[in-house]
């Protein structure tokens, strides 16, 4: 599981910098969104090797729930479907959609969805790190927790509906282009002063799906992630 999620954790670290504390977020009115999220990360190691990671996700959010799903080439999916999954115990956190619901008391119900096994896997908070989830509702729903913007410097005025924010921590600079009306970041970028690390997330609006994905789970079994651990 660690190897499966390492790329995801590295690529979303710029977002995690903005929401390091998983505090409860008060209910905020925000519009429904259907978003495509493109991640890019580059790390230049001491060995001189440049390691780059790119992947794309789609995110659907409605009121108290959000669905995030990696886009995977059909050829890859077909090859995986051809394998025998009878002995597959651990969910693949990279390829399995994640469905998070915010309960009335502020707690989160986080699940991985395994379509090939027709089941949802409920993940308790102590295992969030295993699936690359930081447990912060703000970062899951908004991609960047709006509360974190209070600790950043607004750069200039709103332009084309976007307010630019920036913060610096040592050699690291983080910039967020926040869509004021849509309540999501159109761009999140972090980079160091030496050109050794760069991470970028670009977000765009897409059409809503004909049926929201969590409404297609009728008949799915429900199990706990802890039941799958060795």
Automatic annotation (TrEMBL):
<protein>
    <submittedName>
        <fullName>Uncharacterized protein</fullName>
    </submittedName>
</protein>
<feature type="region of interest" description="Disordered">
    <location>
        <begin position="77"/>
        <end position="99"/>
    </location>
</feature>
<feature type="signal peptide">
    <location>
        <begin position="1"/>
        <end position="26"/>
    </location>
</feature>
<feature type="compositionally biased region" description="Basic and acidic residues">
    <location>
        <begin position="80"/>
        <end position="91"/>
    </location>
</feature>
<keyword id="KW-0732">Signal</keyword>
């Amino acid at each position: 599981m660690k190897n499966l999620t390492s790329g995801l954790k590295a690529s979303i670290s710029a977002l995690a910098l903005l929401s390091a504390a998983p505090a409860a977020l008060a209910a905020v009115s925000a519009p429904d969104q259907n978003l495509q999220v493109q991640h890019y990360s580059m790390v230049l190691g001491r060995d001189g090797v440049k390691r780059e990671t790119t992947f794309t996700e789609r995110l659907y959010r409605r009121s108290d729930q959000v669905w995030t799903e990696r886009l995977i080439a059909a050829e890859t999916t077909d090859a995986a479907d051809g394998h025998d999954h009878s002995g597959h115990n651990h969910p693949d956190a990279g390829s399995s959609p994640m469905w998070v619901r915010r309960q009335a008391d502020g707690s989160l119900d986080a699940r991985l969805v395994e379509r090939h096994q027709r089941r949802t896997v409920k993940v308790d908070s102590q295992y969030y790190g295993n699936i690359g989830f930081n447990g912060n509702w703000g970062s899951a729903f908004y991609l960047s927790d709006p509360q974190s913007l209070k600790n950043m410097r607004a750069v200039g005025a709103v332009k084309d509906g976007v307010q630019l924010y920036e913060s610096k921590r040592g050699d690291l600079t983080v910039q967020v282009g926040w869509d004021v009306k849509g309540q999501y970041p159109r761009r999140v970028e972090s980079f160091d002063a030496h050109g050794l690390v760069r991470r970028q997330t670009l977000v765009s609006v897409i059409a809503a799906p004909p049926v929201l994905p969590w409404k297609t789970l009728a008949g799915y079994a429900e199990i706990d992630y802890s039941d799958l651990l060795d």
